[in-house]
Design goal:
Pfam families: Ldh_1_C (PF02866), Ldh_1_N (PF00056), UEV (PF05743). This protein is α/β, with parallel strands linked by helices and about 425 residues long. The protein is built from 13 helices and 16 strands. About 40% of the residues lie in helices and about 20% in strands.
């Protein structure tokens, strides 16, 4: 894979019979991932040297095959046999290969060699941009937002307003034609914003923002989360397949659990899977301290960490530089009073779609511009504060192009550590009940 990781995959190579006037045997290869049957196969045409690829809505220039069946893959109803049946039907509508002349075949052999190098990740972005010539082929700041609900649309608008991304793709996974806010986005046609139902539209995104939430017919809180997990099982493998070097930014609820699920399903490094966590609360917390409580010196070192919601906790990254124990105690008491007052003000601030959208835009800006700014985001907390389980909690992290660069060390506070360990325990217990 492009991120340097390796896996043993099951490969099917052969031909499928396609009638297009005459009957043709179309050579294909299917790569079955280790997450099968929950993830769809990776499908390619495998043309011989005397065949050319007809680029169309189901096939790209590299021979990668895209089908509705793959996009809507869902275990147990989706099967390899069902996939092949749809492949035959779609190729009978639009034949994916054509016959080359002998001179063309020689050039084709060279092209196949070049494509093989691209597939293996051996060519760099500069060579791609030279051969492609278009902006989409080279270094391109592209963000995909998955989910066209209120939060998804709010994220698109906020990211577009920020102006950091060259292109924003809104991936609408809802059934039927565009409606509601998505229809309005199409009507008023924002520049550099594309709306699609096709996972391939997300290809080569630098950041993928996940906003989808599926309540379904859930009766309990666990059912709600499991419903979201089931939804993510059909989304994350497809997204990570099309954008293997992306940073996944999770805004779906509950953010700590869904970030963990995204990490497990994508097999991405932990640094490239983060949740929005307490970024919004921290920005508000620091603003309240600076502008309402006039505690600017304290605000720059203040963070909201832990679990999003009622169990969030204020913490500090400032080193204690006071001269003696008495001054240290006074400093601590003063800081605690200010933090308590700020937390009371913070309680009255809900997290509306547009406010979370602004927070998401802030995070994507730091990632795309490699700002190395500190944000409180959901990250793998194992090893921090004596937490031994694989759970995601909000902690101050330096963000850059590849996601989390470094976790910022917090002041040691037994009460804070106790609260973080309690949150980690409850989240881990919940995760153990989920079916991934």
């Amino acid at each position: 894979f492009k991120d340097g990781s390796q896996k043993d995959l099951l490969n099917f190579s052969g031909t499928i019979p396609v009638k297009y006037g005459n009957s043709y045997n179309i050579p294909i290869q299917l790569w079955i991932l280790d997450s099968h049957p929950f993830a769809p196969p990776i499908c390619f045409l495998k043309p011989t040297v005397n065949m050319g690829i007809s680029v169309g809505k189901h096939v790209d220039a590299h021979g990668r095959i895209y089908l509705p069946y793959l996009q809507n893959w869902s275990h147990p109803k989706s099967t390899v046999i069902g996939l092949i049946k749809e492949m035959i039907a779609k190729f009978e509508e639009e034949l994916p290969l054509y016959s080359l002349s002998s001179s063309d075949a020689a050039r084709r052999s060279e092209l196949l060699s070049y494509i093989a190098k691209i597939t293996e990740g051996e060519t760099d972005m500069k060579s791609k941009s030279k051969t492609g010539g278009g902006k989409n082929e080279g270094c391109f700041n592209k963000i995909t937002v998955v989910g066209a609900g209120d939060l998804g649309i709010a994220c698109v608008l906020a990211i577009a307003a920020k102006g950091t991304a060259d292109k924003v793709v809104l991936l609408d996974l809802s059934e039927g034609a565009a409606k509601g806010g998505t229809m309005d986005l199409e009507i008023f046609a924002l520049p550099n914003v594309e709306i699609s139902k096709d996972f391939s539209a997300s290809a080569d995104s630098k950041v993928v923002v996940l906003t989808v939430n599926n309540l379904g017919n859930a009766q309990t809180y666990l059912d709600v989360i499991q419903s979201n997990v089931d939804l993510f099982r059909g989304i994350i493998p497809a997204i990570s397949h099309h954008s293997q070097n992306a940073v996944l930014l999770v805004a779906s609820h509950p953010v700590e659990v869904m970030t963990y699920v995204s990490w497990k399903l994508s097999a991405f490094p932990k640094t490239r899977v983060i949740g929005v966590g307490a970024n919004l609360d921290t920005e508000r917390f620091q603003y309240i301290m600076t502008n309402l409580l006039k505690a600017q010196v304290l605000a720059k070192d203040a963070w909201i960490i832990g679990e999003q919601g009622e169990d969030k906790v204020p913490s500090w990254t400032r080193c204690n530089s006071v001269a003696n124990q008495t001054e240290a105690m006074a400093d601590c008491n003063s800081r605690e009073k200010v933090a308590n007052r700020a937390m009371e003000v913070l309680k009255g601030r809900g997290q509306r779609s547009w406010s979370v959208g602004l927070s998401v835009a802030d995070l994507t800006d730091s990632i795309l511009k490699d700002k190395r700014k500190v944000h409180s985001v959901s990250t793998l907390a194992k090893g921090c504060c004596n937490i031994n389980s694989e759970v995601f909690l909000s902690l101050p992290c330096i963000l850059g192009t590849n996601g989390v660069i470094e976790m910022v060390k917090l002041e040691e506070d037994p009460l804070v550590q106790e609260k973080l360990q309690s949150s980690a325990g409850s989240i881990h217990d919940l995760q153990q009940q989920l079916k991934l």
